[in-house]
């Protein structure tokens, strides 16, 4: 009887571990995609601006973009209800949608508010416009995440 209980438990743990691995890999890929979307909006390489130039505006915009994608991925996983294949597809679709919405938000921010992302990351000191855009990123991610749920 103990062996019979151990087999289903082992299978459940194995499936659970594989599901965690699959969601983690997909989440990391979406985070990388989100990073590169912010990178496209900035002059030069975003990683150089953060690592070598130590630009706080670039770091804040990248961090807020990644936070937003993370919210969307977490909400997508939460709403999947345990169905792995459907959950991965939903996470991929909503994660990419959130990244596109963020990119559009950055473009609209530039046009409507008149604050250029490119100009923000050229400034060596933290700028109020970068804080505003960072909050916009997180709010877009939160709205998208709640829409998923």
From TrEMBL:
It is a multi-pass membrane protein. Belongs to the UPF0719 family. The keyword Transmembrane helix applies. Keywords: Cell membrane, Membrane, Transmembrane, Transmembrane helix. Pfam families: DUF350 (PF03994). The chain crosses the membrane at residues 20-38, 59-81, 87-109, 130-148. Its main location: membrane. This is DUF350 domain-containing protein. It comes from the Bacteria. It comes from Sphaerisporangium dianthi. The lineage of its organism: Bacteria, Bacillati, Actinomycetota, Actinomycetes, Streptosporangiales. The keyword Transmembrane applies. It is found in: Cell membrane.
């Amino acid at each position: 009887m103990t062996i019979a209980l151990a087999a289903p438990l082992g299978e459940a743990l194995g499936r659970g571990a594989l599901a965690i691995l699959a969601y983690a890999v997909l989440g990391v890929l979406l985070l990388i995609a989100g990073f590169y979307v912010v990178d496209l909006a900035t002059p030069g390489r975003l990683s150089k601006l953060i690592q070598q130039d130590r630009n706080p505006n670039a770091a804040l915009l990248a961090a807020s973009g990644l936070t937003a994608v993370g919210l969307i991925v977490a909400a997508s996983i939460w709403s999947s209800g345990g169905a792995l294949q459907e959950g991965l597809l939903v996470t991929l679709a909503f994660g990419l949608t959130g990244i596109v919405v963020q990119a559009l938000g950055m473009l609209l921010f530039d046009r409507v508010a008149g604050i250029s992302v490119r100009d923000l990351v050229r400034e060596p000191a933290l700028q109020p416009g970068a804080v505003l855009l960072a909050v916009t990123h997180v709010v877009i991610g939160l709205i998208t995440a709640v829409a998923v749920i």
